[in-house]
Amino acid sequence: MSLVEEPVNLLGFSGPELAALVAQWGGKPFRARQLQRWMHQRGVDVFDDMTDLARDFRQRLGENCQVAGPRPLSEHRSADGTRKWLFDVGRDNAVETVFIPEDDRGTLCISSQAGCTVACPFCSTGYQGFNRNLTTAEIIGQLWHARRVLQADASSARLGGEAAEPSRVISNVVMMGMGEPLLNYDQVLGALRLMLDDNAYGLSRRRVTVSTSGVVPMMDRLARDCPVALAVSLHAPNDALRDKLVPLNRKHPLSELLDACNRYLEHAPRDFITFEYIMLDGVNDSDENAKELIAISRRVRCKFNLIPFNPFPQSGLKRSSAARVRLFAQQLMDAGVVTTVRKTRGDDIAAACGQLAGEVQDRTRINERLPDRGTIILKQERV
Ligand code: SAH
Ligand code: SF4
């Protein structure tokens, strides 16, 4: 490799790509694995600190390459232990990453795009429009950074005599931050493979979840390329309503989506699809809607995750009451459908689902084309 002006960022490199780079310098494949472990497992970004690499190899790396995670602009901690980072992704754009500690696991929620083109009217990311896809390095860099911070915290807690808490470990990753992961397929795939790679993060497929609004052709590709757990943002039980709540439905309607779910299940690490269903007062939370969902549950092996809507000013939508959510869940459960209601976490730091705003300079002018999406839906559903 020749000297280049901008050092190559190795953070997004796959194992085989690193091996090819090392081979150009006459190095053996195990050198690539060592380098990968230094970067991802130990979170080291200075080549000279990678002490078991040969000095001339370190020098070559230092002259040509870098390990550059996304630049954190801020970090917030919620009273319930949730943490949120805002990362600079250039050109006045920022994305958010959230860590949610629980007793038996720690889940990191990662972003895949600056903004989103799907433009769901209940989602503040969709409301902002779209700027660009994140690179593999920017996507995996969110995990890299969060893990470094949490590891540093855990070791200072150990030094202080505290037992390391399991909640400081990232055991699960969900692609449920900003953006539609399957509309940034290649870059997301690179990041998913690093999450699973034993020389990088070594997570099990069952603990890595891609959440999609239903990009059918890419669901089929993911099943072949890297089958991880799948969550599908259903949000509506029929095409008329889903066309409005998840505009991608106009391109890939429900029957097509449900068929794709069944094809995915042939490869999936879990034997069910998680359907996410946001509870919107007077829009999709009627008894009739619950009955339609029960009919859907007969077509695909699934679990339902009911998500209380997190309001944001421009949406014009309201959260279903707690009593309504309970009744709706009960209706599904009485029909034998496994149903959970998502606990809202981190809402004191605007880290809850759909509150991830980041900063997106809209290049698509979605907001001008669709000036009052939220109110249109409310009016039509309420008459
Ligand atoms: N684009 C993908 C992944 C990111 S959105 C998708 O749509 O699945 C992740 C989840 O957050 C989705 O289920 C989405 O419906 C939910 N969400 C978006 N806005 C929300 C809001 N205002 N309140 C609660 N959940 C929201
Ligand atoms: Fe995009 Fe998902 Fe938000 Fe819809 S819910 S606008 S697909 S990020």
Fold topology:
Layout: E1 8-9, H1 15-24, H2 29-41, H3 55-64, E2 65-66, E3 71-77, E4 83-88, E5 94-101, E6 106-109, E7 113-115, H4 124-128, E8 130-133, H5 136-159, E9 172-175, H6 185-196, E10 208-212, H7 216-225, E11 229-233, H8 239-245, H9 254-265, E12 273-279, H10 287-297, E13 302-308, H11 322-334, E14 339-341, H12 366-369, H13 373-382
Parallel strand pairs: 1-2, 6-9, 9-10, 10-11, 11-12, 12-13, 13-14
Antiparallel strand pairs: 3-4, 4-5, 5-6, 7-8
The structure holds S-adenosyl-L-homocysteine (SAH) and iron/sulfur cluster.
Residues 122-123, 176, 180, 211-213, 233, 276, 278, 307, 309-310, 353-354 line the site of S-adenosyl-L-homocysteine.
Structure write-up:
With 383 residues, the chain is an alpha/beta fold. The protein has two domains: 8-66, DNA polymerase, domain 1 (Orthogonal Bundle); 71-382, Aldolase class I (TIM Barrel), CATH 3.20.20.70. Helices cover 37% and strands 17% of the residues. It has helices spanning 15-24, 29-41, 55-64, 124-128, 136-159, 185-196, 216-225, 239-245, 254-265, 287-297, 322-334, 366-369, 373-382; strands spanning 8-9, 65-66, 71-77, 83-88, 94-101, 106-109, 113-115, 130-133, 172-175, 208-212, 229-233, 273-279, 302-308, 339-341. The strands form three sheets. The protein has a ten-stranded mixed β-sheet with strand order 3-4-5-6-9-10-11-12-13-14. The protein is globular. The termini are far apart. Bound molecules: S-adenosyl-L-homocysteine and iron/sulfur cluster. S-adenosyl-L-homocysteine binds next to strand 10 and strand 12.
